[in-house]
Amino acid sequence: MKVLVIEDDPSVRTLVKAVLEKNEYNVDIAETAQSGEEHAVGNSYDIIILDLGLPDGDGFDLAKNVRDKEITTPILVLSAEQETDVKIKCLRAGVDDYLTKPFNTEELLARIEAISRRSGEVNGDRTLECGELKVDMLEREFWVNDTKVDLTNNEYNLLVYLLKRKNNIVTQEEIAENVWDIHFDTQTNYINVYISYLRKKIRNHSEDEYIDTVRKKGFIIRCDD
């Protein structure tokens, strides 16, 4: 697995690089936002590990710029910021996971493995299907009625989670913790927003309503396979 580490703190950078290489990852290093973006756009990586506070730019903007260029490489943020609103801002910028500093190196490795599983890079079924819906987890592609539909990383990860639990109700708390690894805040509606995004994209190519809201319980994706 090839990893890009974008981190300006030499001690953190050295630690992350050493831990990853010890576990047989190939690691590239970038110390600035500009260099990191050039690496991310110009090369192919399995995961990007990103610091938010870079000397020449903001990690939020870097993540958004990478996503705007249709780079779908999973992004794991390492940051000392612990506030939920910062994590939500990262998720909305296209980040896949968030780990606060200081961190345990075993947790870092576990999160990388979890992201890989969600990305379809680890052994398992390559495709998920539900009626007219199909996800190719190796290529990270979504199809409705044989039409390819573009999803953001957050939309994709949410859809995969629902499909893996098809015909079962999942709560907002489960989605928040398993898809984005944050504790659900009842004052925010970001999960409803992403559910709405998915519904709209499915409706554009299908007459069937796949994702239902179950009052006071959560959501379910109904499949008659």
UniProtKB/TrEMBL annotation:
It holds the Pfam family Response_reg. InterPro entries: CheY-like_superfamily, OmpR/PhoB-type_DNA-bd, Sig_transdc_resp-reg_receiver, WalR-like, WH-like_DNA-bd_sf. Residues 2-116 form the Response regulatory domain. SUPFAM superfamilies: CheY-like. GO terms for cellular component: cytosol; protein-DNA complex. Keywords: DNA-binding, Phosphoprotein, Transcription, Transcription regulation, Two-component regulatory system. Coiled coil: none annotated. GO terms for biological process: regulation of DNA-templated transcription. Signal peptide: none annotated. Residues 125-223 form the OmpR/PhoB-type domain. Gene3D superfamilies: 3.40.50.2300, 6.10.250.690, Winged helix-like DNA-binding domain superfamily/Winged helix DNA-binding domain. It comes from the Bacteria. Residues 125-223 bind DNA. The modification 4-aspartylphosphate is found at residue 51. GO terms for molecular function: phosphorelay response regulator activity; transcription cis-regulatory region binding. PANTHER family: REGULATOR OF RPOS. This is DNA-binding response regulator.
